[in-house]
Design goal:
139 residues; alpha+beta; 4 helices; 3 strands; 12% strand
Length: 139
């Protein structure tokens, strides 16, 4: 609930720590697991006005601006299609920016996180179970 000006670095540190702690000595780099970082924020963050942000890592040529792509051998080795599929993926959910209008299942979860309530018309996967277990967060 408190504002952290350097939270972007905290996200970066968390993803890096997750990668390094789950990699045994001698593990092939191609066996590194994909990291998906989800930050649920209850404080004003950056200057954006949306409530869900998604970030990936892509590389572009400095001279021709072409996006770096995996070759066929790398796609097979890494079992993915894009360079961004290898790097950590980040989601930032700024609960305070949510307008309380649930248009999709993820919005129903965000409504729950913001208001500690599950409306009868909500049907997002796992949400009714959370209501039954009374998973209410305290500050």
């Amino acid at each position: 609930y408190s504002r952290e000006q350097d939270y972007l670095f905290r996200i970066l540190f968390g993803a890096a720590k997750c990668l390094s702690e789950h990699m045994d000595k001698g593990t092939r780099y191609s066996d590194v697991s994909k990291v998906i970082s989800i930050s649920i924020l209850y404080f004003d963050f950056c200057a954006g006005d949306d409530y869900i942000y998604h970030g990936t890592t892509e590389f572009y040529g400095l001279h021709n601006q072409h996006k770096l792509e995996l070759n066929a051998e790398q796609k097979q080795l890494f079992d993915c299609e894009k360079v961004a599929d290898i790097f950590p993926e980040h989601y930032i959910i700024n609960v305070r920016n949510f307008n309380d209008i649930a248009k999709e299942p993820l919005d129903e979860w965000i409504y729950f996180l913001k208001n500690e309530e599950v409306k009868e018309e909500f049907h997002a996967k796992g949400l009714l179970e959370a209501k039954k277990k009374n998973l209410i967060f305290s500050s």
